[in-house]
């Protein structure tokens, strides 16, 4: 075949050179002199006919170029990615889409094979990302793109993201085009992410029919399809309110739906990631979960939940595997001055992140851990304490008790130096990540009583952005003998807290205890569960 191509190419080259020579010769004859020659009519007709033929030759040349370029794109030695089978290429496309949802539109126009692979995967188009420009409300192209993705997704379940980032758009989003889009995605929507920064919320007493877009979206959902709900509003704390809700004392986002209808739609949810906007605490959305994240916004003033309501939520999901909790707990149940609520048994719990919130008391962490009784599965625990000046030595009684009844194998502690005195209560610990620990003491502090030999041996210990006495770090290494020690950022001192030791000195002294000491130039990459733990 390639011999035939070479022969045809050579014949074409010779013919083109001859054709060009003849055309140029005719031009030279009739362009002689300064006065146009009198061309016979039949010659003019012949020239017009030849011009149309030349244009047809050009079209055929373009077709030949397309064929040759397509062959080149499929040549494995030139484009190795095309050597991959379609299912692997599809997975790569999905990874690119997860980073940038708009990338699928570009993938479909790279080459014929990529387009064929992209259009052949309905799931690749199942992410409907609707993000209007925050400075304008005219968005026909965005709507058209969303509808195209819905068409190309076939019958695949849809992952929908609705972002509202400005008051300008909020005033224009209650229109027929967006509601018609909601009617298309609602029946097949398996997950919904609401990014609501800038969306106008209304007090229950000021309701005027509710948010028409979200009301339309939820009213068209198919029961049993929605499995994941994500909300993000860093500036507020409030609830989704139905026509039956009249007793909220905080902000609400009103829906023109009954509580029974919303409960029917939310009953199939297994994953809840909530920041700022929450279904009512009695909602069926909190039943049968495997992943529950209740997070505070930037201004955690009213982000609170009554103890009894939280306990009922935990009891309603005994199969919880992941919990992320940042809210305050109020209205504790006491008897004879003691907490009297039985702990909630969560036999499947594998990942737990709890935070005190910026500038708030560590009692938030203590009050939540007090309620939990994990099973025997290995537990990954993250504790984030953003200590205030009045909370430099918090009580850790409940934290210690939680350690004794849990099988904690991975620990990530942030801004919580008291963790050092609790390490002896973690006999199963294998990976420890300590972030943003600061201690300016010149002598070993009571917070670092690590001068004994522990039976626990760590696989990996990370110190990230920590400012600590080097002798305490060495004591930590001698006590737990980690197989690998990773340092990033921060610094270490010995005689003068304001003078950091050189990196080579720190590494040399640590290497005398631990054979594998790494000084990372970049922060270790995240490994799993969003931002809880790190590669090792």
TrEMBL record:
At the top level, the lineage of the source is: Eukaryota
Residue ranges annotated as transmembrane are: none
Instruction: Tell me which Pfam families the record gives.
Output: F-box-like
InterPro entries found in the cross-reference section: F-box-like_dom_sf, F-box_dom
The residues covered by the F-box domain are 81-130
**What's the protein called, per UniProt?**
F-box-like domain protein
